[in-house]
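>> received
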Amino acid sequence: MTLPSSSAQHHPALAAEDPELAALVGAEEQLQADTLRLIPSENYVSSAVLEASGTVLQNKYSEGYPGRRYYEGQQNIDPVELLAVARAKAVFGVEHANVQPYSGSPANLAVYLAFAEPGDTVMGMALPMGGHLTHGWGVSATGKWFRGVQYGVRQDTGLIDFDEVRDLALKERPKLIFCGGTALPRTIDFAAFAEIAREAGSVLVADIAHIAGLIAGGAHPSPVPHADVISTTTHKTLRGPRGAMLMSREEHAKAIDKAVFPGLQGGPHNQTTAAIAVALHEASRPSFRDYAHAVVDNAKALAEALLARGFDLVSGGTDNHLILMDLTPKDVPGKVAAKALDRAGIVVNYNTVPFDPRKPFDPSGVRIGTPSLTSRGLGTEHMATVADWIDRGVAAAGTGDEAALTKIRAEVADLMSAHPAPGLPTD
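>> returned
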């Protein structure tokens, strides 16, 4: 691979030491700059978050917690973690926060370790209905080590039927109930889940990985008054590094902390902790509140534009950052559409839809979202254009019209050049 000139300019040490890897980094920078990124779990972090992720904090081991470490030389590390914890508590209004989990799945596993024993019953949304693997789904360790029972959505509305959730919870009496998921386009009713959890004697876990930034920015209701434990990643809508946090009421602090360390992991990744602190600092600003609301406004505008072009949206639209499209009426499989859109410079992921007759690796749906394009400054006035590109791209996927995809890609690159992405180097 040829080394882009920008790689040598922006990453001189990497380019000198490992030009092959530097070329790949440079190519990815160019790809992220030129394409319309619609995967709802992706975003652009700021230059400050990127810098924090690559500091000399990388060099330190810090097993334990501030003031209770198993390694010396923590004079600067402890304040970094305490700063991240304090900012998490302030942004989300929680009593306790642990910023050490390596990512969302290990964070969820720590919840199991804190509150359940192997073989206990746990309850979460079924993966094909929009849930997450770690909510007790069978192929996950959480479904193999625990007895997972799943709720879903109504086939006629695409919405959660809380009467059915209550009936299942009272029948199964799960130790844990998870609410949240990876393909839920509607507002999560944390209060309704909390009422059911109280009736069933269950610990309620709100997995807000996808919507943490929306909650921080006041664009989605908070689970804090309702959930016993809150799990989240720190990237996605929160625009931080690839990491995670667990938050809880003070009564659960000891169990959570013990489950994370020494229960599941050793030393935290201090460079990630620092980047989390930066992201939370950014999330505390009024501009981030504007961003969170703009993400939702853009998603709603994009959904309306897609509906106007004959697309079938699960639940009929969206309340948050995410749109789940069932392409069955378009007679184009989700995987075929996703790969064609990628060639058109529109990055999405193929996804199952509720009650999907197709297999997970070749599903009927495509999942899209607006966090990344909003970070680039695109607004509701651009959403009709985005919907038109998707419409043309899906149609081209069905007919094999590569020329149409090439034309869309040029149009996408032109608009992207007018809206530089945060954190990406510019020449």
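>> The CA atoms of residues 8 and 15 lie 5 Å apart.
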